[in-house]
Amino acid sequence: WVSIFGRVFDLTDLIAKNRGPLTQPIIDNAGRDLSHWFDEKTGGVRTHMDTDRGLRLPHLPYGRFLNVPPTEPVSDWSTDQGTPWWQNKDLIIGKLTSKTRKVYIMNVLTQQQDLLTVCSEETITEIQDRYLEYNQHAKSYTWKKLADESSGGPSPFVKLDMSLTLADNKIPDDDGEFEALEIDDGFYYPTLHVYFNDDLTYA
What we know:
Layout: E1 2-4, E2 7-9, H1 12-17, H2 24-28, E3 47-50, E4 55-58, E5 92-95, E6 100-107, E7 113-119, H3 124-131, E8 141-146, E9 157-159, H4 175-180, E10 191-196
Parallel strand pairs: 6-10
Antiparallel strand pairs: 1-2, 2-5, 3-4, 6-7, 8-9, 8-10
């Protein structure tokens, strides 16, 4: 894998199908962030001005790599390259995260509780997608959290906004506070409660 602008690419199959000198720079940098190879605004390979030829050419400090055209005319280069791998969304397997969090998912119907490790940037919908591994009917559940004491509502639980993150749903990350108090980070994890809707439409 490699990462580019926060996105993680799985290039295992791509490398296997294109073994050769053009994949070697990628292999040599596997497991690293390659954002500096690309221009975030254009989505293309970074370029530099070749003052000798007066041309703007790809900036390739590790050598030319797969889907980058040669700087000189060659007979074995096909212009029909399709979507370059760094723009191929099918190769993206996730995002880099600034921090992971652990949360319990409590199935209120079955009382089953599962501990998931999620990215702090993930929305509840994305966490729900992770939970499908544990419950294939996860999308047929309503997701709630324990209400804040200040909410003053009739129910001890409130519905989560599926488009927001844990933090945006006012589920704070207490790891820093626990660390300051020298409390083990496994002492407490927040719990999301899922309520079955009696609807298997999304099974």
